[in-house]
Design the sequence.
């Protein structure tokens, strides 16, 4: 949000409402968060599968590998809640910017 201070102030001067600023900041956080959560999930499943395949020569057996869709969706939902909670304070701060000071920000 600090990097976008001047741009957000300019948008507020032109015609953006405080609520639209909040929605913009939250939408940016959700988009970045969803990409990160999906990437993390994919890497974790890839790592677990690779571990299962390589453990047979080492251990003599393969550990059980099971996907639990309800747990996966629950963790994804909890991750989204954490993302929105973490982005709420910067969004609130951006909505309440002093426009004159923010336009001079470099």
Sequence:
């Amino acid at each position: 949000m600090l990097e976008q201070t001047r741009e957000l102030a300019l948008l507020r001067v032109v015609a953006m409402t405080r609520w639209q600023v909040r929605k913009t900041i939250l939408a940016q956080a959700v988009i970045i968060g969803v990409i990160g959560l999906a990437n993390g999930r994919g890497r974790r499943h890839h790592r677990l599968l690779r571990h299962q395949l390589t453990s047979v020569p080492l251990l003599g057996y393969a550990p059980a590998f099971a996907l639990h869709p309800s747990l996966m969706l629950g963790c994804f939902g909890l991750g989204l809640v954490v993302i929105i909670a973490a982005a709420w304070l910067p969004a609130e701060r951006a909505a309440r910017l002093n426009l004159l000071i923010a336009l001079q920000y470099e």
User: Anything to note?
Assistant: The mean pLDDT is 84. Helices lie at 5-14, 18-59, 69-95, 99-103. The longest helix spans residues 18-59. Residues 12 and 18 are 7 Å apart (CA to CA).
